[in-house]
Amino acid sequence: MTVEIRIQDDDSLEITGKFDLLDEDGNAYGHHGKLRLCRCGASKTKPYCDDSHVEINFESKVRA
After folding, report:
1. Out of 7, 12, 23, 55, which could bridge 36 as a Cys pair, Cβ 3.0 to 4.6 Å?
2. pTM, whole model, 2 decimals?
3. Number of neighbours of residue 31 by Cβ within 10 angstroms
């Protein structure tokens, strides 16, 4: 399965597929399916998105 990372305007990073998320120490946490990572820095469940970006009116439009 291909891993896809989608940068959503004013929103989180959405990762789809089968992949490992590595912490600072190199510990791997396996994921399969869809995962949303925080981009705004306000999430209370970092590194995961909890939709705090809506409350703080986060704005970011990134183009690859």
Report:
1. 12
2. 0.85
3. 15
